[in-house]
Amino acid sequence: IVRIAIVHLSIHHHNTESIAKAMADSVGAELIPMGEIANHDLTKFDLLGIGSGIFFGKHHPRVLSFAKESRHLPHACFVFSTAGIRWMYKLWHQPLVRVLEEKGCEVIGQFCSPGWDTVGPLKYIGGIHRGRPNAQDLEKASQFVRSMLVSAEGRTETPGAS
């Protein structure tokens, strides 16, 4: 059995929280808001998901600080986010991926969902992606985390076991 923790920070419209909750519900993961992370021992988990909205081209600074300062992270991790301009997510995930890899984590997957974005001048036009993430986005997040579970199971099996 793979034990999964999903750590998230959701600030403006709770876009990332809804994605994180869908992920956690679909695989029985422990959902941990960033503000409660100090109360949790991450060493008991085999797989860590970590995400936030994208803020000016990267994950929220608190997420990056958490990753830099954490001493004991699971070996396998995945990164997720919500963003107004989703198609650039691999670039935006790079700072967090780099920190996790420097800490010895293997980043086994990345996921980004469209999210309602009203930052900066977008607030004057009502933002972009109003109503996102929607049911289809939540299902994609669930499918993604199930694929991460399968990938992590392959990494935790004992060599030679059948």
What does this structure look like?
The chain is α/β, with parallel strands linked by helices. Helix content is 36%, strand content 23%. It is built from four helices and six strands. It has helices at residues 15-27, 61-69, 89-102, 135-156, and strands at residues 4-9, 30-33, 47-55, 58-59, 76-83, 106-114. Strands 1, 2, 3, 4, 5 and 6 form a six-stranded mixed beta sheet that branches. Helix 3 links the parallel strand 5 and strand 6 (106-114). The radius of gyration is 15 Å and the shape is globular. 41% of the residues are buried. Mean pLDDT is 83; it is low at 157-162.
Q: Could you provide a short overview of the structure?
A:
With 162 residues, this protein is of the alpha/beta class. It has four helices and six strands; from the N terminus they run βαβββαβαβα.
Give Rg in angstroms. Answer: 15 Å
Regions with little confidence, pLDDT below 50 for 5+ residues = 157-162
Terminal residue distance? 15 Å
The total beta strand count reads 6
**Overall morphology:** globular
Largest sheet at a glance? Answer: 6 strands, mixed
Count of helical regions: 4
Q: Pairing-aware structural class of the strands and helices? A: alpha/beta
Strand content: 15-25%
Task: Note the main attributes of this structure.
disordered C terminus; 6 strands; single chain
Question: How is the topology of this model organized?
Answer:
Elements: E1 4-9, H1 15-27, E2 30-33, E3 47-55, E4 58-59, H2 61-69, E5 76-83, H3 89-102, E6 106-114, H4 135-156
Parallel strand pairs: 1-2, 1-3, 3-5, 5-6
Antiparallel strand pairs: 3-4
Helix pairs in contact: 1-4, 2-3
